[in-house]
């Protein structure tokens, strides 16, 4: 049995929650952060396992606010176990799981079931997001208080927009007194119609049915107005247009409690990938044009974007092939994210990046973490700035489809610690100074 104790030696510790960025040792005792100092001596922690992290970046555990774990119902695409294995291999100590499972996470026992599966997997922490409407059908309201009591941290019908504004407004009024925010998937049905990609010069050239930016922006505007009207805390998922960001800014200026996220794929790829990627480039909202990519990057740099989110949407291999109109949407994101963000935002100060991936996410979802302050649970991500080539066959996720396939990215996760347990270790990359059994019932995710 381990006592979940460890010394992390000599990494660059970046913790925006306490304004810390310096070379430090970190002492973990009993699964909690015990000390951070220039040098921690062995006497402080006899027998604790030591990791040599010179040259590495040590951060509060990264939290992904938007993943799809597909369980229950679509375990051929992903399970809580494989999704959390992918999470820790990507450097995430926690993920928030969307409710578009089959059946949807719209009842307390389903929330408890996901939490139980996450505990059994023993890898990343999982924070379930419950549905806004029963079955995500956009008609009947879900039982919000019971869902929060069962462990839900937010509400969303993600994958679908709540089309009926009256239903959504009523939902927000019912849930108003709960901390848990509403998270909007923004695509207006009549404008989107059967659109398979972004409307623009590329869709016109290829003759592919398309969906305009307006389809997204009109719902962002509507939902932020409903947020203001009901005084509900509101978050916009996978925002993909510059005007969408302007709407979030406008809402904040009115005193509306509004936040938003952007994804790695919307920060990097434009609709031009459709020329070569066809079905493999399909995602909702669709990949946009170059001006939108520039606007999103500026939005991150200028602080309009609150958090970064992968929208990890794993699918089985067969689901992503075939005709464009029949293919499923979404990419596997957890195992490329830290590299993709560094690639998209090379000049973003590290402390800002860590805030967007950890501290701000903990605040958004009102969950523990996002800090390495003394006494907090030892959820720690260890990253390294080094080039690597994305090889989806090495993913722990069952979903292997990513537009980043074959690309060289400049940063990667090398070790992930959850509650003082080393749950991921890119073997051979993190030299052990002493060895001790530290897994405490958890299994290492293996090599990559
Ligand atoms: O591309 C997407 N895929 N966007 C979503 O909002 C849902 C997701 C999925 O569940 O596959």
3D structure, described in words:
- With 448 residues, the protein is an alpha/beta fold.
- The protein has two domains: 6-58 and 378-396 and 404-447, Urease, subunit C, domain 1 (Roll); 61-365, TIM Barrel.
- 28% of the residues lie in helices and 21% in strands.
- Strand 9, helix 4 (165-175) and strand 10 (182-184) form a beta-alpha-beta unit.
- Helix 2 (108-121) runs parallel beside helix 3 and helix 7 (213-230) packs parallel to helix 8 (242-253).
- It is globular.
- 56% of the residues are buried.
- The model is unreliable at 434-448 (pLDDT under 50).
Derived structural class: alpha/beta
Bound compounds, each kind once, are: (4S)-2,6-dioxohexahydropyrimidine-4-carboxylic acid
Question: Roughly how much helix do the residues carry, as a percent range?
Answer: 25-40%
CATH architecture label of the largest domain = Alpha-Beta Barrel
Domain count: the total is 2
Quaternary state, please? single chain
* Named CATH topology of the largest domain: TIM Barrel
Indicate the low-confidence ranges by residue numbers: 434-448
> What Rg is obtained from the alpha carbons, in whole angstroms?
21 Å
Name of the level-1 CATH class of the largest domain: Alpha Beta
Biggest sheet, in brief? 9 strands, mixed
Looking at CATH, the homologous superfamily of the largest domain is Metal-dependent hydrolases
Counting H and I runs of at least 4 residues, what is the number of helices? Answer: 13
The share of residues in extended strands comes to 15-25%
Shape: globular
| Total count of strands | 21
